[in-house]
Design a protein that fits this description.
With 132 residues, the protein is an alpha+beta fold. The chain has three helices and ten strands, in the order H-E-H-E-E-E-E-E-E-E-E-H-E.
Length: 132
């Protein structure tokens, strides 16, 4: 059976892994997931991610979770745009999450980027998720 929301699945795996105190979590690979993981890494919410293969030979990612003194760095990780309800925003209307302390990840025509970069480049798009 195919998955209806692959990005939401990856975010849930990260949330569940941090709740359980795991050092790493695994998820299937895709270009969208790779670009979201790159934004999470550059923003400092995860340590690293690497591409690997599972026992059946399917490509996947191993995500190294980040903790600060035993507490997860990610406090809030929520999906904004869902398959049943897509949410789009112009560059000047991208919401500031937690007064700018959090990051909204945006899928733009120029690629997936953080909200601050999208505002600087004056490009809007689909609001994928919010992280704090």
């Amino acid at each position: 059976m195919s998955m209806s929301d692959p990005l939401g699945d990856m975010l849930t795996r990260i949330r569940n892994g941090q709740s359980a105190g795991l050092k790493q979590v695994a998820c299937p690979a895709s270009k969208m997931r790779a670009s979201v993981l790159a934004v999470l890494k550059s923003a400092g919410y995860i340590r690293d991610y690497k591409e690997g293969a599972n026992d059946q030979g399917h490509k996947g990612f191993i995500i190294d979770l980040k903790y600060d003194e035993g507490r997860p760095v990610i406090k809030v990780l929520q999906r904004v745009s869902r398959p049943g309800r897509r949410v789009y925003s112009a560059a000047q209307d991208i919401p500031r999450f937690y007064n700018g302390l959090g990051v909204t990840i945006v899928s733009t025509p120029r690629g997936v980027m953080a909200d601050q970069q999208a505002r600087e480049e004056n490009v809007g798009g689909e609001l994928l998720c919010q992280v704090f």
